[in-house]
Each structure stands twice: as structure tokens, then as C-alpha cells.
Give the backbone structure.
Amino acid sequence: MELVLSQVIAGLSTGGIYACMALAIVMIYQAIDHLNFAQGEMAMFSTFIAWQLLHWGMPYWLTFVLTIAISFAGGVAIERVVFKPLKNAPVLSHIVVFIALFAILNSGAGFIWDYQIKNFPTPFGTTPLFGSTLISSHDAGMMSVTVILLLLLFVFFRYTRVGLAMRATAANPESARLVGVRVGWMIALGWGMAAAIGAVAGMMIAPVVFLEPNMMLSILLYGFAGAVVGGLTSPFGAVVGGFSVGVIENLAGTFIPYVGRELKLTIALALIVTVLTVRPSGLFGRVIVTRV
Amino acid sequence: MSRILLSARQLCAFYGATRVLHGLDFDIVEGGVTAFLGANGAGKTSTLRALSGMIETTGEISFGGQAVAGRSTEDLARLGIAHVPEGRGTFSRMTIEENLQLGAMARNGRAGIAADIDRVYSYFPRLRERARQQAGTMSGGEQQMLAIGRALMMRPKLMLLDEPSFGLAPLLVDEVYAILRKLKEDEGVSMLLVEQNAAAALALADQAYLIETGEIVMSGRAQDIGRDENIRRAYLGY
């Protein structure tokens, strides 16, 4: 029993990473209706920017805020420069551009900051929490940041007019235009917010997995798994999904023979396939009820 | 007489390379109801889509004295054209109240918006009962009312109504038209109404245009057109 509990806690702490990433994925999916394959690389690039600022001697929390602001601007810029001209292009063109962005950001980061693995500091310290070796103060800090982020998003989408306009844009862009919503800017805002959330995720993840251009490859997959499990339409679901994926992979790794550490990623992929077959809208994604 | 709110000259519209409107000329009078009648595929919906910048057009459109051809849909909505689209454009996953809030998206002033929501509810009591319900779960008639309510929230100068009777039971058609009449009389909203249900539309409208394969074939006072048996037989089918 104690083993189960400790594995669940350990799973939650890695789950926090996935939850952060899943949240960023869902954000952009809401805004543009596509999965952004470059999401992880955007987060990685933001983290390198933070690393650079810290390297120049800027204090942590100032760096944190500034990196979020820069990433937000960067996200908006990517939408305006790259995706706005493609707005009537078929889905495949978007996917090609996502892959291009992925490659550009990945090799760009490698070119500027090289591929040597770097340490990234945590503001929460790394002492074991409550004397437990399973969860460190950084893990706890990361989980709290994820939850705070989720609350902020919830308030934004539920109670602000811009949030309402963004939801309308995602649900029915043509109708949104007809009531005067500036749909183009809402999409750009969605990109900016996704980039900013990605930056937070990156800065939280980097102390755990270390900073290097390929740090996000597997995390993006886990993030996708989390987002799919929770439902791509629900930020709350994404966070729950992210935590669940962390817990499930940990439990499976411990208790199912042969899975072990090596097959953990397989668990995430199997989860994606299972959820998509059994319950395509995810655990918390809304099934659309319509009467005509 | 009354001022002209919107006028179109030589208005053509295109879906890709296909021209669907072939040089329409028409005027919409302020405070009045203008009806566009015609069969399925005549170009009624395209006319509305052209007026709110949803498809490519050529020709001139002036609205409130401004040349507005080629302006974006968002801009036209902000200028005061409220388009109640075919299919009603419901935000089906949002609540009734949120749908109405969206109608006020281009406006400021919390108090004014709250008062307008209340006013919409007084026209459509059924919406008030369902304020927190998901809009997509309502019946077609209720969604039509919601769409009209959402348009009213924009405090529009001109409402474009695309077949408000579409898919509704006869009783509901009467109900919707009774409300439109009330809006016309109490609020003085100008409307451009597109309908296949000619009888209902002509009873409400002041002016009417008959449209056939993308061209206006006849225009006049709604009363006269409704009374003329030949026109009725040839174009309106009742």
C-alpha cells in the first residue's frame, strides 16, 4: 500500500510537467483548431531566453515575468507573420509549417546556445518535501504553478469579455465576426497565451530534465497524451489528464512486469490510442449536444 | 419621405470565380422593413452575405452615407449591421446569456448592456427562463429568437434577417413574426428580410424586391406586390 501511495505521489510530480505542457497544447488547440507540433520547441526556446537572461545576472522572478512577456509577443508575432497569410490554406499547409517551425526553433536554439546540457535553476529549492524523497519542494512548486495557471485561465475564459470573445472565435468564427469580434486578433492572442503558458511550462520543467534543444521531445508526447486523455477542448481536463498520465505511467512501470522504465513512453502512446477509440472527446471534453 | 439607410448599386457577388449576383440596385429605407423574396437559390442569402462582407463583391454599397463595399465583416458589424445568418449562428456550447453578451461585444458600458439583456428577455420571456442553459439544446424556434436577441444586443442600425421562418412550425412562425413586428413598431429597427415564406414577409414589409437567379425582376410596395395575383402566381407560389 505504501508503495502504491509513494508511486502515486511520484507520478503526480512528473504529471505536473505533463499537465503544464498539456495546458499549453489545449490553449492553442482552442484558438486555431489544430495541434501545434512546434509547441514544445516554442517552450524550449522560451526557456533558453530565460536561461540567457539569468546568465546575464537578472534576478529569477524578473526573468520569469520578462520571459513570459517576450514569449507572448513571440507567439503573437508567429501568428501574424507566418499563420495569418495561411488562413485560407488547407490543413496540410499548416502541418508543414508546424514542422518547419519545429525544425527552425530546434536548430536555432542549438545554433545560438549549442547542444551542451545546461542547468536551469528552480526558485523553489530542491529539498525533499516533508522529509519524503519522492516529492521535492520544486515538484510541489511546479504543481502549484500549474494549478494557479489553470485558475487564472478559468477566470479569464469564464468572466472576462475578451475570454468570451476568444471562446466564440474558437466555436464559430463566422458568427463571431457577425457580432463584431476581431477574429484575427483573437487567434493571435491565443497564440500569445499558448506561447506564454509554454514558457512557464518550460521554466518549470527545465530544472528537472535539464536544458537542451531536445528537452521537449518526449514531454510534448506526454503533453499530447494528457491533453487527449482530458479532452482537447477542456483546460481543466488537460491538467487532470497530465497528472493522470504521470500517475498511470508510474504505476504501470512499477506494477506491470516487463514495462519498467523503458516502456513508459509506450504507455503514453497506448493511452492516446485507447482514449481516441473509446472516448474521442476525452474525459472532460465536451460532447456537443445540438438540436436542429 | 424617409431617409435611405443603405443603397447598393450594380452589386455583384462571387463564390470563387462564379458570379451569383448580377448587378443589383436597391435601397433600404430607414426605420422600414424591406423584403427580398424569391425561390431557393435565387440569391437572397448571397445578397445578405454580400452586404456583410462575407463574400467577394463588386459594385457600390453605401451605408449611412459611407461607402462600405469591401469592408471586413467585423467592421460592418461595428458600423451597425446586425446579420442574423442562415442557420442562426448560435454559439451552441455557450449559455443563452453568454450568447447575448457576445452580441454586445463591440460595445462598452456594463449598465447599458445589462439593461439591453433585460430588454431582450422582455421580448423573449422564454430566453430568460433558460438563461443558463446551453444554447445548442434549445429548439429551432428558440434559437431563432436567440439569434434575433443577439442581433438586438448590437443596437444595430440595420438588421439583416435570413429566413427567420426557416424550419419552424407555423405557430412559431407567427410568434417570431409578431415579435419582429413589435420590434419594427416599438424600436424602429430597420430590417432587410429575406424569405421564402412570402406571405409572412409581405405582411410585415414596407418595400419588397423579387429576386430571381441573381437579378432583381421586380420591386415595389409590399402591399401592391402582395395584392397582385399575377406576381403571386408567377413568383411567390401561393
